[in-house]
Structures
1.
Amino acid sequence: MTEKPAKRLFIKTYGCQMNVYDSARMTDVLAPLGYAPASSAADADMVILNTCHIREKASEKVFSDLGRVRAFKTARAAHGKDMIIAVAGCVAQAEGAEIMARAPFVDIVLGPQTYHRLPEMVARAARTRDGKGSGILDTEFPAEPKFDFLPAPRADGPAAFLSIQEGCDKFCTFCVVPYTRGAEYSRPPSDVLREARGLVAGGVREITLLGQNVNAYHGAGEDGETWGLGRLARALADIEGLVRIRYTTSHPRDMDDDLMAAHRDVVALMPFLHLPVQSGSDKILEAMNRGHTADDYRRIIETLRRYRPDMALASDFIVGYPGESDRDFEDTLALVREIGFVQAYSFKYSPRPGTPAAALKTQVPEDVKDARLYELQAILDAQLRAFNVACVGRSFDVLLTHPGRHPGQLVGRSPYLQAVHVMADPKHIGTVACLTVVSCEPYSLGAVWADAAKDAVKTA
Ligand code: SAH
Ligand code: SF4
Ligand code: F3S
């Protein structure tokens, strides 16, 4: 019997790390059907666009990319070859019917909660596909959590993502996530620990726990108790071989005492936290329905730094939320200067259909948003550079994860999530090395082995 040729799967991932995790899981569920990764969409038997709806630009990009994929499908058809096109993720969830109508060449539209059913959908698509809009749409929020139906993920390198929480019940007035990802759900701690042990057995040394509101985690323990993220982190830290734990993205409202104290007690918890504040103005924070003030945020940071003095902070910011005055924006700049964020994502407010803020009459003009974003980013960028410069001459542990672009070079992550380059043998991949930083580029650090550092710093 001749072996069936492997089918090629190409996934393009937009948006957040939850989507990165989901794309990896879609690859896993399709592997038993004979799909192996393709290097480009042009020669794939199946293309999945795993989409993001968070801002207008992200959503629009999907339709332009679909045009390109359609051309590949047509070119393949001329050679008698098929291509299944699927749109997954948050645009699929929010605009599934519109995608089917605007792009009838799309075979499958599936939401973030249904991709465990992808094999069935692919089989059905192969039977029913006619390119005339009779595609498959599955954007339910099924009662069965998809995690129960997914195969155990395989380790792929020393650093891995592990999704522990999904969805959001907070309904910030600007945000689509509660609509695209659904209600908050936490996986049971026993599942998380099992998945983590499997990853560590496969060589993983660092796990980043993922969730839209990861610190709202409240998993139902087998002991009858509800576990928060602090307790989960402590249990994970007991896994032999797991040396680093991170989590993202957190919400200030869910930064409870136990989790903050875990940063003091659990060595594996890295001293870098992405804790989006969005704005430094109490008026805007209230209008956004964030549920905390700027001072609440300051107090959290104060506590965290008391527990872990080297804690580095990252954030997200929105400028030009409806009604944001110059004064409100100044409050944001003041908070940024005070906290000294070492990394941040900042965005112009983008009105999203169906969210309360989109209907407000007090929209900020585009040129004002542009100017504010420019000013904010200049400060954030300067802070990032200052932090990197201050690292030169310091030694810290770096988890070496993969080869760099230059021969003989390895890349790793510092405790503060900076990319670090070092000349080293590939056998060190997967180890934590004590390195001394000798140089700094805008977005990465150059380092040498700590015991070789003295000379290097002298001659640098
Ligand atoms: N759950 C996280 C954020 C998830 S969305 C939190 O609560 O902080 C990721 C980021 O996208 C947000 O932090 C916000 O800064 C940005 N964002 C979300 N909706 C947006 C919108 N309508 N316009 C501009 N930025 C937006
Ligand atoms: Fe969106 Fe707010 Fe939920 Fe974060 S907490 S996902 S910003 S609604
Ligand atoms: Fe985007 Fe959905 Fe993530 S809207 S940011 S892909 S949760």
2.
Amino acid sequence: MPAHRTRPAPRQERFAVLDPATGEPFDEAPDQRPDELDAIVARAHEAWRGWRADPAARTAALLAAADAVAAAEADLAPLLTREQGKPLAESAAEVARTAARMRYFARLDAGPRPIADGRPVRSEIRWRSLGPVAAIVPWNFPLQLASAKFAPALAAGNTMILKPSPFTPLSTRLLGSVVSAALPEDVLTIVTGHEPLGARLASHPGIRHVTFTGSVATGRAVAGGAAASLARVTLELGGNDAAVLLEDVDVERIADRLFWAAFRNCGQICMAVKRVYAPARLYSDVVEALAQRARTVVVGAGLDPDTQLGPVSNAPQLARVERYTARALADGGRAAAGGRRLDRPGYFHAPTILADVPADSPVVTEEQFGPVLPVLPYRDLDEAVEAANSTGFGLGGSVWGTDADLAETVAGRLECGTAWVNHHAELSLAQPFAGIKESGVGVAGGPWGLYGNLRPFVVHRLDGES
Ligand code: NAD
């Protein structure tokens, strides 16, 4: 027997997964090696042959998988809370949205479309799948963002290899096994491990589309890696959304909505409100209304039913939030509420409202991605719109006021992909989701998300001349 046959298989390395509410490890996940990807991509390529061939069977399998995900909520939601930190009710809502997104894409149709241009030629676009797609996602909404990748990719007839963040591997692995049980083998594969696993996946020559959600810096690296094979690249990156409050805003009426638009998921949302611009006349009212909520919100472990705000998800993110806050205070800012990490085990940071922060402090110009919100005064609306548009990001933004028509007119001046009036960060499954500037490349969501996973194949037929 050849020597290599007698060698035992290498032991699968594992890494610890921490509970952010305690900072302690509670389980482990496989630390897969980048060289495992060759076989995984080859199997995904093989599975693609059957998966792309029968759209009706695909729809049925994806709908069955969506039902299985909804039915697994009691297992998925607590595991998500345990490794990510969010309150259990938000984890349950994330599971429900994951199943809803799968159903939405399973039912979308990308059948042939005629091209009517008046010529005596019958032209038709037939949409074709791409092949194995690589997805890389962050830790803030592990299940929702995984489904935002695999639901359109699989519905389009592709197969997928998906890598979650090493901070949240377990709920994604469980989701993968629930979904895969309803699908043919190797249609969806979850890989977990540390870098350079993601870098190798993004640059693998067998991958035809790389779809990434995460930070701007990593997005650049991913795009650079994918350039080697010229795979299609979709990037959903960071945001620094501004909320502009108008002179006629009813502060008490909007304060809860505005607060939660900034603090839900502990502020760890790409399109959370990350800066508030308030008219100078209302400035102290707005600061106080938000600070009062920050002081009274119940902070605790996500599994505790009383908790409204969980811990920050991981130690590096907590350090980042502390850094931005300390710098804002050193720059002359004032903490109207919070201002520091909480003195308890786990990664808890006090919900923080920052006033009087200079406009060039990094908590205003960059992305804090945590439970810290700067509020800035403005005197002139043009100045506020210019400030809202002044960062390198362009994901979302919102305008708040009693005259909703006026607010909508001002919202139209925001340079971003989605603008909201009197609310923020709510997306429809049917809408295109696309950041501009450094917030992204390509379009996800709605039919655009499906077509982003397809290529057009065009047939021109000259009738009556054969
Ligand atoms: P991150 O960029 O550090 O990591 C994202 C993913 O990339 C993780 O799975 C990580 O393991 C992987 N990764 C790290 N280095 C890599 C490399 N060199 N090559 C390939 N993959 C690599 O981001 P994060 O801290 O996990 O997430 C927070 C960021 O995600 C924020 O900037 C947030 O705004 C952004 N985000 C954007 C959206 C959106 O839809 N636009 C949604 C959610 C989060």
